[in-house]
Amino acid sequence: QVQLVESGGGLVQAGDSLRLSCATSGLTFSSYTMAWFRQAPGKEREFVAFSDWSGSGTYYADSLKGRFTISRDNAKNTVYLQMNSLKPEDTAVYYCAARRGWGTRREDEYDYWGQGTQVTVSS
């Protein structure tokens, strides 16, 4: 059974940093592209970043480049999202997702999803 479990969310102030983690089990982690998506209140879920199976191929939503960094530790079967200079508009539930093969920003192409972790940024 595949499981993705996010952690690290919370309430922070604007300008703070936060690191999210997504621990996986039940899949061959090194063969999967791992991605982060987020969904703000009243909005559709949107792509944040992905790290392909090799770990050397990363891709970000244009609006988040330079503030967010995705990384992975294949030995720990875990993917991370480092978020710096957080803004109130970053408030959302953050989800990790996994798909076998190359990366894509299309959420309908991901096979497995975590339950999400809430990030709230106060002004």
Account of the protein in words:
The chain has 123 residues and is mainly β. Helices cover 0% and strands 51% of the residues. It has no helices and eleven strands. The strands form two sheets. Strands 2, 4, 5, 6, 9, 10 and 11 form a seven-stranded mixed sheet that branches. The chain has a four-stranded antiparallel sheet with strand order 1-3-8-7, with no helix packed on it. Strand 5 and strand 6 form a beta hairpin. It is globular. It starts with a strand and ends with a strand. The model has no long low-confidence stretch (mean pLDDT 96).
Strand residue content: over 45%
Query: Unreliable segments (pLDDT under 50, ≥5 consecutive)?
Result: none
Task: Supply the helix-strand structural class.
Answer: mainly beta
So what's the oligomer here?
single chain
Largest sheet: 7 strands, mixed
Q: Strand-and-helix sequence, N→C?
A: EEEEEEEEEEE
Number of helices: 0
Instruction: Give average pLDDT, whole number.
Output: 96
* Overall number of strands: 11
Topology summary:
Layout: E1 3-7, E2 10-13, E3 18-25, E4 32-39, E5 46-51, E6 58-60, E7 68-73, E8 78-83, E9 92-100, E10 112-113, E11 117-122
Parallel strand pairs: 2-11
Antiparallel strand pairs: 1-3, 3-8, 4-5, 4-9, 5-6, 7-8, 9-10, 9-11
Short recap of the structure:
The protein has 123 residues and is mainly β.
Task: For the structure shown, list the relevant keywords.
123 residues, mainly beta, 7-stranded mixed β-sheet, 4-stranded antiparallel β-sheet, 11 strands
